[in-house]
Amino acid sequence: MHETYANRFGLRPLALGRRGMVATANPLATQAGLRILARGGNAVDAIVAAAAAIGVVEPYMSGMAGCGVLMLTRPGRSPQALSFLGRAPEGANPQAVPWSARDQGPRSVAVPGNLAAWARLLADHGTVSLGDALEPAIELAAGGVPMTVFDRQMFDEHHARLNPEGTRVYLHDGRPPAVGARVVQPDLAASFRKIARDGVATFYEGELAKTIVRDLAALGGLVTAPDLRAYPATLEWSEPLVARYRGVQVYAPPPPSSAIQILETLNGMAGWDLPGLPHLGPDHLAVIAEASRAARMDTERFVGDPAFVAVPVERLLGSGRTDELRTEMRARLGRRAAAGAGPRPSPAPAAGTTHLAACDATGLAVNITQSLGGGFGSGVVVRGTGIALNNALHWTSDRAGHPNVVQAGKRHEWPVAPLHLFRDDAFWATVGTRGATAS
């Protein structure tokens, strides 16, 4: 896009780069990734640096004790997916994790996956050490980061979730810091330094693990030392799902990511001439809304951890279900038109998720959607560590027979869905956004 055109119409000019690019929700995290690229690192090195840094500068969104999914494409290769969604602790069941305890607090915490995934990604495809990748995050945590207007909005909305340690770490005299004030996190910097020195083992079975388990036990949490110790070995690369939409191959991570919902939505939308409808007009939005609704219903009914439930992937993405879905859509669209009703807006999802992407000059591309769950996750910050814990068990169910009923060791269906797009069997783009159950 020509800059004059962009300025004239109030649009951003295209970001351009020759050696690689990094995209995050915060310029400080983006700079962390670019710093690694400028030193000669690859896209994997850069995105791990950015993923650690974003948890420092936007601690209400993500952090090392969060969960997520990533997609990776190597030059000339098909994409790979790595799921690091949190596993339910061995002591978890519907009685031990009642609905009232799932949104926040110590019983909402699943075994964290982010740190293990960053280390695995680096070990398999990176060129720098984990310590090198964590340098920018350590500097940001130790030196402090300024509060932006957006930060203050998030703090105002979610700081009531914080436990006393979280209040001590993030707030100033019990109140969200003023815009422009520095948020310094020396305990988190010290935790990152331990990890840089001793590796992820300190988080999953060493000094930090003992502190996390001890603090959670005192608060009534369920995550134990064996839960943490077992987690890194459960990470496995997998083959993504794929669907074709208007000449583009869309690759998405398999369940328990709910990305299959996106592919099913695209299958439904492909039955309409969307380019022939006024862009974002009532009819255009109604088609998208109905395809999304039908796909979400299938996700809710069928998608869970394939190690625990049989997810009918081939059926959901097959031509038979696609035909059924389009029939449902035509009927509902007809009723909408007769009633003169357009799509109804849904409430914005709670903060707690972020998306990052990086590519380099070789064609290596990777994107990550990672999350603490809700704003500041569970609200539990582990004493003396600066580590905020997720509330990933919020997205489980207590209904017998439901694919996401709370069960020991299970990963749950979660709305994190990084995508890789191919045209003519060649990598073209990555796509991702923060998630929500209804998105």
Q: Can you give a write-up of this model?
A:
- The protein has a six-stranded antiparallel sheet, covered by helices on one side.
- Helix content is 38%, strand content 14%.
- The radius of gyration is 22 Å and the shape is globular.
- About 1% of the residues have low confidence.
- With 439 residues, the chain is α+β, with helices and mostly antiparallel strands.
Number of strands: 14
Low-confidence spans: 345-349
Taking all Cα atoms into account, the compactness measure Rg is 22 Å
Report the end-to-end length measured between terminal Cα atoms: 29 Å
User: Class by helix and strand content?
Assistant: alpha+beta
Order of helices and strands: HEHHEEHHEHHEHHHHEEEHHHHEEEEEE
Helix proportion: 25-40%
Counted by DSSP, the helix tally is: 15
Largest sheet: 6 strands, antiparallel
Lateral arrangement of strands in the main beta sheet: 1-9-10-2-3-6
The coarse overall form would be globular
Q: Strand percentage, roughly? A: 5-15%
Calculate the mean pLDDT score and round it.
91
In short, what is this structure?
This protein has 15 helices and 14 strands.
